Amino acid sequence: MTQDLATADSGPTRPRRGGRAAKRGNTGSFEQPPFRRLVNPFTPTRIVSEDELEAIHLASLRVLSEIGVEVLHDEARAIMKAHGADVRADTQRVHFDPALILEYVAHCPSEFEVHARNPAHNLHMGGNSLILAQMASAPNCSDLDRGRRPGNQEDFRNFIKLSQMHNIIQCQGGYPVEPIDIHPSIRHLECLRDIATLTDKAFHIYSLGRERNLDGLEIARIARGVSAEQFASEVSCFTIINTNSPLKLDIPMMEGIIHMSRHGQAVIVTPFTLAGAMAPVTIAGAVVEQNAEALAAIAFAQMVRKGAPVGYGGFTSNVDMRSGAPAFGTPEYMKAQLLGGQLARRYGIPYRSSNVCAANTVDAQAAYESTFSLWGVVQGGANMVKHAAGWLEGGLCCSYEKMMLDIDLLQMVAEFLQPLDLSEDALGVEAIRQVGPGGHFFGSPHTQARYKTAFYSPIISDWRNYETWAQAGSPTAIDHANRLWKERLAMYEPPPMEEAIRDELDAFVERRIREGGAPTDF
Amino acid sequence: MTQDLATADSGPTRPRRGGRAAKRGNTGSFEQPPFRRLVNPFTPTRIVSEDELEAIHLASLRVLSEIGVEVLHDEARAIMKAHGADVRADTQRVHFDPALILEYVAHCPSEFEVHARNPAHNLHMGGNSLILAQMASAPNCSDLDRGRRPGNQEDFRNFIKLSQMHNIIQCQGGYPVEPIDIHPSIRHLECLRDIATLTDKAFHIYSLGRERNLDGLEIARIARGVSAEQFASEVSCFTIINTNSPLKLDIPMMEGIIHMSRHGQAVIVTPFTLAGAMAPVTIAGAVVEQNAEALAAIAFAQMVRKGAPVGYGGFTSNVDMRSGAPAFGTPEYMKAQLLGGQLARRYGIPYRSSNVCAANTVDAQAAYESTFSLWGVVQGGANMVKHAAGWLEGGLCCSYEKMMLDIDLLQMVAEFLQPLDLSEDALGVEAIRQVGPGGHFFGSPHTQARYKTAFYSPIISDWRNYETWAQAGSPTAIDHANRLWKERLAMYEPPPMEEAIRDELDAFVERRIREGGAPTDF
């Protein structure tokens, strides 16, 4: 478990399949579907009727008007008061009239473009688009060779590189693992410089205080090479606002909303409403609370700037009632995913969900919890999937092997979303006529013309027969994933960046590091 | 791997959770959701438009009229001819006019009741009902202790017992594993007697020649203790008819349809149309062929007896184009599941799908392929899931551990299908008011009143934190499954059966064994 990566990767990389090996020419290339904007062709699955949805909506509005929300940030309360919220001098509790919430929520754009520094990696948020974002915020990482340990800069960079290389990971969702060897005061500078240079996809900025937001915005602007005016008119990055459930909005969150919205960047509000812990034990009740918190923060973003791009995040799940530990990918989680989607669409706001699990290793549990999550994503009509690749242990660990497993799962989901070919030739009547009863299609011209691209070719699934598989040492999915991430990481090549932009970026980051970065309380 | 079951099971059974242990009193009891008729509350997901569906339908009818089907059974061809099919003297090829197909398919009942010998286990087929049937027809079985080996009577009985004990497995789908220690001539007699006595749920009869069908029908009748007249008027068992794709209907299949339909029992026609092997390499083309074959056999059942209960089975999947091996739980499989469902509903016929995978062991692959299959089942609006528990290796192996994994997956899917509680109390506004901003719900009365039953409690998922899990030896899902099946199998108790019925059943089976059972060609 202490073998280092260089050693672990020093053996010959043996591609499992001739097809892929044959196509793999130069360094940096391997067989994968192209980068593409994903569109979910399916009508989202409704879990409640329109009347039932309205009951949840109205209950959330009652929570906001009768119970209210605690807002710890003075300027935010002042903004809310100036826009008509019930803010009193002697308390942080803010009450919102239902009509006020609805008035401001109505300003949310239903769709917007997300600009990456490489325009080929621009994305669309909302409608029936689906964006897949890399896992974020794990304190630990793990792989089969070196076991589980706190994250460092090398692991951070490895995950970033892997996400850049794989087309199915369409943007960064934050730091896949926290690099604890970088001091928190300058961590955001080092990490965002890495993200902005090692990848050319859109990314997330943490809302952890004013300085980090503003530094992140400037790094995103420089990386795109655009003016402040153009930057403010095009979404180029996003932040996740996790409310302090129940019903609290803290200072860094409010700072995040204020600065991101003022700069025209996306705010995705995601209450962390675990049923039975920070929210009612019923899924309906937890979603009522999720919805109330989301509406409060989203309305606030619109008070800061009408038309500010926002997302509606659903993260409601249940807990293990024996231990209080969060559970993910459960039936309750799926129900909350579908319900959250119906609510987000009711308000016309893009919907964010996640690919999550509670498993401790890349076993059957990790796979079924993640696949159930993706089921909820697709059928719930989610527009963005955070934590799409790498997530283990309820988010406490980013796993190299899980990342490869998730890449395969995401590629399969993306393939599921591709429209069926229903051309006359695809319907195959002539091919069936030619082969006739009792024949076979292996060698038919219809098959020969299509077989190389007819089906998605998975990267993890082992389809060898039992005997061949057993002779090969009975490798399981985690073994294949372990081989794959090392093979692929070794092929990483950084995306090009103009020298002037690189210089400007370095100058900014170095200056801010010299200035001490962001204040920390330790 | 050679440790025998008795030894493997001799240690104390240590339930992983206090909650279950506390509720587990007498032998034969463990915590599980009750036996219930499952209803899928979701609108099935459409993968093609009505126009596109019509194009597939019309292409299938062209196949049946222009290309035709080879029918190897003389009486069947005579029946087809008598009912208007184009049957010529010098060939086994039968052509069907589209109008003729539609005329007979219109006689199919859209829904019917399935009667078990225990009426509490009766099921409903069709509409938005969902029936889950045990895995069938594996030549091999496996468990972690004893490895993989050909099936025998003890394994066969173990799987039957496990399916009887678990409410989520609602009927038998055939022999979970073939007991090769029983001679084929009498295997059906021994196996069906076991199924009829060790379980009290409805079951499947193999269509492997006239004698086996008739023996199976008589065993089903005796087990229910009903007259031949009552038996013929109530569906009590079913048979799967796998056409010899492409476009061939062999003698045992035609015998099966004739005898099952004449006796009022259900015939579920399931073409085995692997895209790229026995069917066109395009999913649309493979489904055109599936649909043509299904319509031919279903129309034939209606020629045998108008109103005969039937099911429309979809089994279309892709193959590994490198090896020709079938793949399951793939994006292509899911697309075929959704498309098959749309076709079955177009004809108003109950739809059968499956829970299948190509994995060789109970790893992440087995879990994601199976969960993708179940996704297709639910969103495709399937009414019956064959191979719901135990399936590995594309059907070549029934695994004890996979069976437990699938039981958990099925129980989760069943929980997902339960309606949300949207009562005023469940919406939780008062609970949210009571806890207030920044509080927690663990100890609130709203939580206390509900926490024991609020969430589905999985049997495989390990939700302990990493440290506790690692201290316990880092067990993976397959380890939990291994412990579970042994714990549970040890609790098996046979369902009651009236002595007179048992005597009649034994007398029939013993007489048929003395007579030599069914003819075999070896």
Oligomerization status of the protein chains = homodimer
The major pleated sheet of chain A works out as:
8 strands, mixed
Helix and strand content put the structural class of chain A at alpha/beta
Task: Report the largest inter-chain contact.
Answer: A-B, 125 and 125 residues
Strand content of chain A: 5-15%
Can you give keywords for this protein?
homodimer; 522 residues; alpha/beta; 4-stranded mixed sheet; globular; disordered N terminus
List the helices and strands and how they pair.
Two copies of one chain form a homodimer.
Chain A lengths: L4 H4 L9 H6 L14 E2 L10 H18 L1 E3 L2 H9 L3 E2 L5 E3 L2 H8 L5 E4 L8 E4 L2 E4 L7 E4 L3 E4 L2 H13 L18 H15 L4 E2 L5 H15 L3 H6 L3 E5 L6 E2 L1 H12 L3 E4 L4 E2 L7 H22 L5 E4 L3 E2 L12 H17 L3 E4 L9 H16 L4 E3 L4 E2 L4 E3 H17 L7 H4 L1 H7 L9 H4 L17 H6 L5 H13 L9 H16 L8
Helix pairs in contact in A: 3-11, 5-11, 6-7, 7-8, 7-20, 8-10, 8-20, 10-11, 11-12, 12-13, 13-14, 14-19
Summarize the structure.
Chains A, B: Belongs to the trimethylamine methyltransferase family. 2 copies of one chain form a homodimer. Chain A is built from 20 helices and 20 strands.
